[in-house]
Amino acid sequence: MQIDAVDQRIIALLVADARASYADIGTRVSLSAPAVKRRVDRLRAAGVIRGFTAIVDPASVGWTTEAFVELFCAGRTTPAQIGAAVRRHPEVVGAYTVSGEADALVHLRAADIAHLEEALERLRAETFVTSSRSTIVLSRLAESPGVGPSTG
Fold first, then answer.
1. What residues contact residue 132 under an 8 Å CB cut-off, 6+ apart?
2. Which of 2, 3, 53, 81 is 20 to 30 Å from 147 by CA-CA measure?
3. pLDDT of residue 41
4. Looking at residue 10, what is its pLDDT?
5. Residue 52 CB neighbours (<10 A)
6. How far apart are CA 38 and CA 52, in angstroms?
7. What's the CA gap between 65 and 31, in Å, rounded?
8. Helix axis angle, 22-29 relative to 5-16, nearest 10°?
9. How high does pLDDT run on average in the chain?
10. What does the alpha-carbon distance between residue 11 and residue 28 come to, in Å, rounded to a whole number?
11. Contact between 151 and 16 (Cβ < 8 Å)
């Protein structure tokens, strides 16, 4: 699917505010509301836009402790095996295969250090995990909910 500059602006505006009306977006990209709706429908049908979601502040629900955990796995552990395992842990925010020594990088979020330790122990108990290395997040410096440059 070809995505032009207008599609990119629409996507960026929806990432910034998924509740923006088609009319508001149209004003920003010089299109009518029906034209914006047609483009959004096309982007959804093509799978470019996979859904709309609420972004919840983790502190407001009490999950303020975060860590990044490098996982080192046994032998021929596949990305699919790692993915299936990490999806069983509600504290996992994201998981990625990576280059370098580790096989995967897992982002965890928990209520406090005790909860984080418990989540780490459960993650490390997965049969394929041979070792891990954790880094605790002290503060967030930047975060973006979507892709591409901001719409400023």
1. 69, 70, 71, 72, 120, 123, 124
2. 81
3. 97
4. 96
5. 10
6. 16
7. 43
8. 130
9. 92
10. 12
11. yes
Residue range 10-68, pLDDT digits in tens: 999 998 899 999 999 999 999 999 999 999 999 999 999 999 888 788 888 889 999 99
* The two three-digit tokens of residue 74, written as one number: 């046994």
What value does the mean pLDDT take over residues 93-106? Answer: 96
pLDDT more than 90, % of the chain: 82
What secondary structure, in 3-state letters, does the chain show? CCCCHHHHHHHHHHHHCCCCCHHHHHHHHCCCHHHHHHHHHHHHHCCCCCCCCCCCCHHHHCCCEEEEEEEEECCCCCHHHHHHHHCCCCCEEEEEECCCCCCEEEEEEECCHHHHHHHHHHHHCCCCEEEEEEEECCCCCCCCCCCCCCCC
Amino acid at 91: E
